[in-house]
Amino acid sequence: MPSKQEPVIKSRPSRPTVAIGLEGSANKLGVGIIRHFPAPVSGGGPRPPAEILANIRHTYITPAGQGFLPRDTANHHRSFVVKLVKEALKQSGLAPADIDCVCFTQGPGMGAPLQSVAIAARTISMMWNKPLVGVNHCVGHIEMGREITGATNPVVLYVSGGNTQVIAYSHHRYRIFGETLDIAVGNCLDRFARTLQIPNDPSPGYNIELLAKKGKHYVELPYTVKGMDVSMSGILAYIDGIANDILNGNPHYAQDQDGSNEQITKEDLCFSLQETIFAMLVEITERAMAHVGSQQVLIVGGVGSNERLQQMMAIMARDRGGQVYATDERFCIDNGIMIAHAGLLAYQTGFTTALKDSVCTQRFRTDEVYIAWRDD
Question: What's 27's DSSP letter?
């Protein structure tokens, strides 16, 4: 298990610091290099915006109808990691001597891909004689989102292939207010894409989003919110049954506005699935906003780039006099720069990861990390 971050004494770096970050918790391999500048000496205040020097990503894509297996994904990462590190250094114009620390995703994620990237990070750390910094994948998303959007203290909706959580910051921890009880929203969308044989290039969730924009009929699906938590496995099973009927030549019908019956299409199903699960996410996010008294919502994670989710969340936030913050696919989808950024924030407080503690885990909770770089 990775060692939990303990409180450390904060320090203000007196010079710019640079980190390289390696991300490989799922089917995307990312390498990023970032530079932080010191905060002003006179009068204190926040540090200047970070400078992104390189942000390179390579995705392992499988044929339509297939998911990505851990072993094959790990092989992909091992095959491309050296190339991406070299490209990142070239793009940044830096040499290994210019790097202050080597950051890597320590969890959560898929075991074999995580291990393949951790081995690469350990190797680089020893070759360059630089300290290691293990990073929680979820915290990486949050901190990158805050950096890019300028959100100060938002309620965070973290939605990706492997995670669905509603989070808010308090007393040096990112506290989880609600989460999925079974599968994550991204996993739900990806698995439904497999049922419909939707291509995985560039991603199944994105292709579902495109089809959903063409949907005309809403198919009523189970709506499963349990307090602050959500459940999506039953919704997936229900809509899979409808989809399989349609694919096997047994059509379902919806009543049109003129009273006539019209066959339900795969576009209608994509539209209905998005509307249902996104409404569930908006509901629990609004409840968290009311509880903590926040007027800001930050959406992070790969599914956070979905325009319809952003639109639905914006309607809710506007009704509350609030605002939604989101990033584009460069920073929403798994990337190395978010790991470099979060790792560098921790490194600047004095945190490093010893080699013996650099093991990865598929279960590394967001609230396990002590956030030493934020005020209470």
Answer: S
Domain 152-331 in CATH 3.30.420.40? The answer is yes
Which two three-digit tokens encode residue 253?
């019908």
- How far apart CA 253 and CA 270 sit, in angstroms, is 15
Domain residue limits, the chain = 17-145+334-368, 152-331
DSSP character string of 216-282: --PPP----EETTEE--HHHHHHHHHHHHHHHTT---EEE-TTS-EEE--HHHHHHHHHHHHHHHHH
Q: What is the distance between the alpha carbons of residues 213 and 309, in angstroms, rounded to a whole number?
A: 12
Question: Hey, is 35 helix, strand or coil?
Answer: strand
Is residue 15 exposed (0-12), middle (13-18) or buried (19+ Cβ within 10 Å)?
Answer: exposed
The domain 17-145+334-368 is classified under which CATH number: 3.30.70.1350, 3.40.50.300, 3.40.1400.10, 3.30.420.40?
3.30.420.40
Dihedral Cα 270, 278, 242, 191, nearest 10 deg: 80
pTM here is 0.93
Task: Give residue-wise pLDDT tens across range 3-23.
Answer: 555 555 455 567 899 999 999
